[in-house]
Amino acid sequence: MISITTKNSVIHFNSTVYTELNTYIKAQNPSKIFILVDTNTHDLCLPQFMANLESGDIATEVMEMPEGEDHKTIDICMGVWEAMSQYNADRKSLLINLGGGVVTDLGGFVASTYMRGIDYINVPTSLLAMVDASVGGKTGVDLGVLKNQVGIISEGAMVLIDVSFLSTLPQNQMVSGFAEMLKHGLIIDAEYWHTLTHLEELDLSDLDQLIYDSVIIKNKVVTEDPTEKGLRKTLNYGHTLGHAIESYFLEHDAKTTLLHGEAIAIGLILESYISTKVCGLPNEVLDEISEGVLKTFAKIEFEEVDYKPIIELMKHDKKNSHGIIKFVLLEAIGKAKIDCEVPNEIILEAFTYYKAL
């Protein structure tokens, strides 16, 4: 697959990733190499990565953080910053983030702020990170249960996508990443959406191309609008409600914590319903979207008492302005509209629609 060049970075795929990585290290000659992993990728991915890394005489340190969204915090950043300082990391050090979206988001933030910025490379190991989290330069951590409230947009030197790492994932993590791919089709490319919702016509060998196509879509958007002034906002489709739902389920012990993609899948359906009321999305298209999402994602049960606190959490969404909640909605599959204001009663109707599916 042909490497994808972004404004400040390059995305390499499969057979080229280690050649490109080792060429980069030889040319840049970093003072030290730090590799950030979580408890899962330490065991499942690090051995393969280290077997292909050619660091020569450059000292290499592995730093391990706990696995999971609830550890995407400033406290973990503190631990990583302190470890790097203890091992004498300087401005010529390199940080390699080997993991899913939590590792690439947090690691990118750590690198972008340590000594006001050192080089970093993302090596995504989950489907979610490959098609979304590791591409585009968004880094950051959560503030309590509020998603990605603290962060910076700063691209790493490169992204290395080795699809073989997906074999280490449990099924629910594979499915989680699929939600972002569905979103890419809904906001930009109706043909891609159709392909993703008819996977019975494909086989596993098509996955590489689907991932590549999703990265192309995301890169096109972030290249045109790197700082999210306009078009890049469309990448938040399904996320205004999805993030609020994810946060709500994370903070309530009585709820089963949702993976990011599971929450976003709900958001895609809810915000598609809202689109019929606000942007004139045809009802038959809403039905197509709901059916397409539910082919992969199981319905999640809500109670009416859940709705108000979820809506309250949306007040912290980063697209909001002057205290007004701003949605990304659909006029048609492949055509999104940004900065839409939505009355609470329509949001409540959307939950009623979802519950009845």
Automatic annotation (TrEMBL):
Cofactor: NAD(+); Co(2+)
UniProt keywords, alphabetically: Cobalt, Lyase, Metal-binding, NAD, Nucleotide-binding, Zinc
Source domain of life: Bacteria
UniProt keyword annotation of Transport present: no
Domain 3-dehydroquinate synthase N-terminal, residue spans: 63-174
Record's keyword annotation contains Repressor: no
Ranges in coiled-coil conformation: none
Record InterPro entries: Dehydroquinate_synthase (IPR050071), DHQ_synth_AroB (IPR016037), DHQ_synth_fam (IPR030963), DHQS/DOIS_N (IPR030960), DHQS_C (IPR056179)
Described function: Catalyzes the conversion of 3-deoxy-D-arabino-heptulosonate 7-phosphate (DAHP) to dehydroquinate (DHQ).
Name assigned to this protein: 3-dehydroquinate synthase
Organism encoding this protein: Winogradskyella haliclonae
Gene: aroB
